[in-house]
Amino acid sequence: MTTHYLVLSGLLFAIGALGVLIRRNAIVVFMCVELMLNACNLAFVTFSRQVGNLEGQVIAFFVMVVAAAEVVVGLAIIVTIFRTRRSASVDDANLLKY
Amino acid sequence: MESQIAEITQHTGGVIGVSWLMIAFPLLGAFILLVFNRFTNRWGHLLGVAMSLASFVVAVLAFFELIGFGEEARRRAVHLFEFIPGMPGEPPMVDMGLLIDPLSISFALLITGVGSLIHIYSIGYMSHDEHRRRFFAYLNLFVAAMLLLVLADNYVGLFIGWEGVGLASYLLIGFWQFKPSAAVAAKKAFVVNRVGDFGLLVGMFVIWTTFGTLAFKDLAAQTSGVENGTTLAIGLLLLLGACGKSAQLPLQSWLLDAMEGPTPVSALIHAATMVTAGVYLVVRSGAFFFHEGSGAALAVAIVGAATLLAGAIIGCAKDDIKKGLAGSTMSQIGYMMLGAGLGPAGYAFAIGHLITHGFFKADMFLGAGSVMHGMNDEVDMRKYGALRKVMPVTFITFFIGYLAIIGFPLLSGYFTKDGIIETAVHHQPVLGWLAVLGAGITGFYMSRMVFMTFFGQKRWADDAHPHESPAVMTWPLIILSIGSIFLGGYLILSNTLMLFLSPAVGRPAELPEFHFTSVPGLATLALVAVGAAFAWMRYGRVEVPAVQPRGNFLTTFARRDLYGDALNESLFMRPGQWLTRIAVFFDNRGVDGLVNGLAAGIGGSSGRLRRIQTGFARTYALSILIGAALLTGALLLVGNI
Amino acid sequence: MSPWLPILMAVPVVGAIVVALLPKGSDKLAKQVTLAVSLLVLVLTGVMAAGFKPSGERFQFTAAYDWIPSFGVKFGVGVDGVALVLIALSVVLVPIVVLASWHDADGVKTADGTLITPKRSVKTYFSLLLVLETMMIGVFAATDIFLFYVFFEAMLIPMYFMIGSYGGAQRSYAAVKFLLYSLFGGLLMLVAVIGLYVVAGSKTFMFPELVGAIQDPTTQKWLFGGFFIAFAIKAPLWPVHTWLPDAAAQAPAGAAVLLVGVLDKVGTFGMLRFCLELFPDAAKAFTMPIVVLAVISIIYGAIVAIGQTDMKRLIAYTSISHFGFIVLGVFAMSATAQSGAALYMVNHGFATGALFLAAGFLIARRGSPFIGDYGGVQKVAPLLAGFFLVAGLAGLSLPGLSSFVSEFMVMIGTYSSAAHGSGALTVAAVIAALAVILAAVYILWMIQRAMNGPTAEPVKLFKDLNAREVWVLAPLIALIIGFGFFPKPLLDVINPSVHQTLTNVQVPTSTIAEKGTGQ
């Protein structure tokens, strides 16, 4: 049982990571990050259930809170970038180049 | 032949107790003239003369006080101050003090006496120079330094004076420094002298290491009178120093160029006093390191003999009257060195010749200066001629000097030079006969000089109006020429000088007796006569060409100063320039290049490394992922999970 | 506990703050305040030095305050003879440099008449100067090795800005090179300082308590290396010298004087105090290689100096030669040589200071540092030429001027040193003595080209020294001549502390013991 959940969590994480790496649209990248976070959450909850205490579930809540905060800041940045550059592509924001 | 040198006694009080005034007066003069600068322009020269005379007075008083002591007590040391203190609780390393003894006081009298005369002469000679005050400041500085050189009671004090006169010489040769030739000559004199100073310096190291003292007094107690490897080394090193200062082979080349200085300078520094410092050094150190018959002493004599010939040969070919006299100075100092290399038997003659030479050479240099003064500073003897009528006083005094230097019987030079030759023939026959030969050449070149300058036809430049010099210049000439006549006989005939000097330098067991008809003496006279006659045939009887004719090989050899400069140039100067260039290149490209290369290397590699920063967020994300995967893998590998 | 040294260090800092807080545009006031403060420090130091007893305790005017108690770091100060004369040197030079730099911070004129403007304001320059003074006093006064290290590194900061912001055309390059070189050495020294603390295990950085703490020869060698490389870069010793010509040539003349005259002395001072006393066995083991480096510095510096065309670079290279003498004296393991070396540190500060300043005045008139751009200065500006000559003569160690005494003591002490079976050091002394000839060449050739000969066209417009410039040079020249004949006041202070150093190193401390057995 645990194994299935964990395999699913791993798959979701892998999909999320792949999405972050290959998609250009900032919104999609963002959603992929969320996907990764939720994959982690799934793993936490799974372990929590298996071990039989609540710590994993508490951490999952923490992750959700952080994710929510991240969405607030992240979306704001994306919107600002879109306003100045008329583009939501992450590759256009490369000011950190050498 | 035991040398009997008196002990040195500590002395306080009296004139000798304040003998430092001898140095202080001219030093004060130089100080005032240099510091108060143009405010002293009007009376600066008078102050200079006064200070020199004051010093002379102190020297005379000290001299009389000294001869008031018994012969054995005539070496008085005066303590001045602690110069280099030792470690806590130990005696000072160098104590500064003066040594007033017959040797040093003889020098002091010569320096201040002839020095004062030359000061007076310079009032006239330099009267048209806008920097006359500075000239007197330098002259005073020279006198002070020279007195320190001869009066100091230790080698360090001597060395300070030694370099002090070098400085004064540098300043005075370069007095007309706006002439590039004068500036170069001044620098050359100083640098060549420094080569000699290197010898003196290292000599002092060896003395200190071996004997633990640099004071003459303590050395006298420690040196045994026997030569060994160490004292031979010291002797040769000191000889190197002496060669530099006294323009002896192989460090002779600076003296001829030094004639760029004003003529009184040539007379005082480069004839009468400074260049004889080497002789002083040898005689002063004689009891310690130049024992009679030792290798070091022999080296001194050989150098002397070689230089007396070289100087004489150079003197034969010079048309520049001052350079001719400079060659002759080299040669005469060669005689002194030869005498000084013969031990106590020769010291008195060497010093005697030094004193008489101080008179007659200063006389002739000043005479030459007087001629130049009347001839618009022309120095080429081919443009002189027949000057005896228009410059009678100059001519007569110069002629007396000339007779003295060629050793005309009964004049000063005759006695002192003959003394050296006789002693040399007795001790070192080969060198002695070379000295005889040298005397013959002297007869030739000095006669040539006199004939070209004062006899024959006028070959003056069109704008030349020769005239006799003012009294302020002729009186010193007259006084010097009187000395040139009588001094030698007085000093030598009844061994006056030898007896006087003996407490300081020792004397031979048997006092020499002067023979007017000895073989070497007669041979010398004969050769001098031949030389003079030959000069008459070439320069007196026939017209002297106004343009220098092309000489044969030997003449060119002499005109080029025996290729001394060429030798220095090819042996030291050019290799030195190359070495400098290579060193600079090595420093810029090699040492600094390595450093800059390292910096460039680091800069370059970081430039390449930063290309990793593409600016694409996804690249960074990938590197994070890879990093995380690697870390996880590593942790799994070590089995901590 | 004596308040003297903390006060001496506090006064310039307070002055620096005051100067920095002055309103904009009050440049003249800033200069005057700086001069007043530096003179006050000079007077205070004079009063303090008068109370120094050469025969008393080694470290006097000591004070120690806890600083970082958990590591045993203290703010510990105190001076021995050598430190005292070096502090005296620093506080004498600062007011002279202030007076000399009166217009330095206004920009550097170049030969074609353009002005290189400084990056920072005039009052900042003088404020930095005062900060530097505190650090110079501190670095010599520190008896806590950690404190010494802090000052050693912190000194770089004001100097970095003085070169980098007020220097000539290549100032940035020179300043960065100077900083990187020094930092590299400082890093090695930091490692050695920490190593010393750990190995000694006595929970203190106080120098007197650490003397003799390290006994193991191998440990000594490693720690010695860390300290020595830092000091060799600072000194600078061949082959880590190339930062000096660049820094000295680009720095304004006043800063160059402090750089060469005082900052570099920290290197040789450190060798004398820390390298020798903390690691005596290592110092003895490394004597020969160091002596070889010193002799190379002496001759190499002199030869490269001869070939320079830039006046300031030439003087910098002569300093490398002179620092070779100082290092030679420090490591010759002889009382005479070491006293001479300590004396040389002071004398070199005066002599090279005078030469740099005279050259600076010359360059300020023409804008070009190149010797070939001058000629015949003597005729139009005899005072300037005269001072330049005397300073130059001090640079070539003319007897009767102060540097001669020290050079003579170093050479004669090295020659007669019994260490390492006298042979090798004897040879070293003789080779070093050759520098007297080379010194005459580089100084007199420069003077011949710049001062003598026919007057060059742009030189004809030169004005001779003004009163301010005379007041800058005259005290230095007076000191050079005065100590040339009476070095006793300095040596009386230096000798006991050298004696103590050599006792700690266990080398014969007597000049008499060095003497041979006679014949």
TrEMBL record, chain A:
Subcellular location: Cell membrane; Membrane
Catalytically driven reaction(s): a quinone + NADH + 5 H(+)(in) = a quinol + NAD(+) + 4 H(+)(out)
Record key words, sorted: Cell membrane, Membrane, NAD, Quinone, Translocase, Transmembrane, Transmembrane helix, Transport
Enzyme Commission code(s) on record: 7.1.1.-
Main localization, broad class: membrane
GO MF: NADH dehydrogenase (quinone) (non-electrogenic) activity; quinone binding
Membrane-spanning residues: 6-22, 27-47, 59-82
One Gene Ontology biological process: ATP synthesis coupled electron transport
EC class of the enzyme, as a word: translocase
Membrane topology field: Multi-pass membrane protein
Domain of life: Bacteria
Entry GO terms, CC: NADH dehydrogenase complex; plasma membrane
InterPro entries: NADH_UbQ_OxRdtase_chain4L/K, NUOK/Mnh_C1-like
Function field: NDH-1 shuttles electrons from NADH, via FMN and iron-sulfur (Fe-S) centers, to quinones in the respiratory chain. The immediate electron acceptor for the enzyme in this species is believed to be a menaquinone. Couples the redox reaction to proton translocation (for every two electrons transferred, four hydrogen ions are translocated across the cytoplasmic membrane), and thus conserves the redox energy in a proton gradient.
PANTHER family in UniProt: NADH DEHYDROGENASE SUBUNIT 4L-RELATED (PTHR11434:SF21), NADH-UBIQUINONE OXIDOREDUCTASE SUBUNIT ND4L (PTHR11434)
Family, similarity comment: Belongs to the complex I subunit 4L family.
Subunit: NDH-1 is composed of 14 different subunits. Subunits NuoA, H, J, K, L, M, N constitute the membrane sector of the complex.
Protein name: NADH-quinone oxidoreductase subunit K
Underlying gene: nuoK
UniProtKB/TrEMBL annotation, chain B:
One GO cellular component term noted in the UniProt record for this chain: endomembrane system
PANTHER family reported for this sequence: NADH-UBIQUINONE OXIDOREDUCTASE CHAIN 5
Gene Ontology biological process: ATP synthesis coupled electron transport; electron transport coupled proton transport
Membrane topology summary: Multi-pass membrane protein
NCBIfam families, per the entry: NDH_I_L (TIGR01974), PRK06590.1 (NF005141)
Major subcellular site: membrane
Domain NADH:quinone oxidoreductase/Mrp antiporter transmembrane residues, every copy: 152-442
Keywords recorded for this protein, A-Z: Membrane, Transmembrane, Transmembrane helix
Transmembrane feature ranges: 12-36, 43-64, 103-123, 135-152, 158-178, 198-216, 265-283, 295-315, 335-355, 390-411, 431-451, 472-494, 514-536, 620-639
InterPro entries attached to this UniProt entry: NADHpl_OxRdtase_5_subgr, ND/Mrp_TM, NU5C-like, Proton_antipo_N
NADH-Ubiquinone oxidoreductase (complex I) chain 5 N-terminal domain: residues covered: 94-136
Compartment annotation: Endomembrane system; Membrane
Signal peptide: none
GO molecular function, one term: NADH dehydrogenase (ubiquinone) activity
Identification of the protein by name: NADH-quinone oxidoreductase subunit L
TrEMBL record, chain C:
A single Gene Ontology CC term: membrane
One example of a Gene Ontology biological process annotation: ATP synthesis coupled electron transport
Record bears the keyword Membrane: yes
InterPro entries according to UniProt: NADH_Q_OxRdtase_chainM/4 (IPR010227), NADH_UbQ_OxRdtase (IPR003918), ND/Mrp_TM (IPR001750)
Residues that span the membrane, as ranges: 6-22, 34-52, 81-102, 122-140, 146-166, 178-202, 222-241, 253-274, 286-307, 314-335, 341-363, 383-405, 425-447, 468-486
Recorded topology in the membrane: Multi-pass membrane protein
Top-level division of the source organism's lineage: Bacteria
Family of this protein: Belongs to the complex I subunit 4 family.
Name of the protein described by the UniProt record: NADH-quinone oxidoreductase subunit M
UniProt source species: Nonomuraea jiangxiensis
